[in-house]
Amino acid sequence: MKPIRLAFACLVILSKPVGAVELNGTAEIVDGDTLVIEGSTIRLFGIDAPETGQLCGSAGQKLFRPSDDAISRLQHMSRGLVRCRGKEYDDYGRLIATCFSQAGDEINRALVKEGLAWAFVKYSDAYTKEQKDAQSSRLGIWRMACEPPWIFRAKRWKAAEQKSPNGCPIKGNISGNGKIYHTPWSRYYAQTGVNTKRGERWFCNEREATDAGWRLPLR
What we know:
- The protein has helices at about 65-75, 105-115, 130-135, 150-165, 205-210; strands spanning about 15-25, 25-30, 35, 40-45, 45-50, 80-90, 95-100, 120, 170-175, 180, 200-205.
- β6 (about 80-90) and β7 form a beta hairpin.
- The longest helix is centred in the last third of the chain and has 15 residues, at about 150-165.
- The protein is α+β, with helices and mostly antiparallel strands.
């Protein structure tokens, strides 16, 4: 019997309503739209940043990695104390939140406005104006051909699923940095091996990996 899995796990944000939650503190950056404050993982509301494994550009152009700019900007805006507010958690226990820099600037809005992330219109139209402005000005991800991350993830997942044991494509690696899992759209997925004799393993979805004690690499 094949294992039950959630295909394209990170594409789905299953919201669980809670009372208003506010987190304040120093942030660790996971990727272009995810950060950690005091051990709590936060997914920025209404946006979707490029994945670290993505390259953008067309044939004949010099390709660029848009996640680097998104992560760099998020790191810059997260210097000092960050304040995040949200009312829902997703299926992975991440708070879906709007975050503000120490200077009071809204981080979510700035990333879309500067062309460093897409407005995640599947879940919210909060930043559609900022996206239109960035697109018309050809900023960041809009200056060259660049595939939306939800499409990139779906393609990578499907390809990796066909090659991995039992169709479970997430790699659980153990290193000096601890137990780290790599999704098919991560930058180091291809270079990462899985040695089951060392306790490394494959996972069918991200929730399975986090429940087993693995985490995403910090960028």
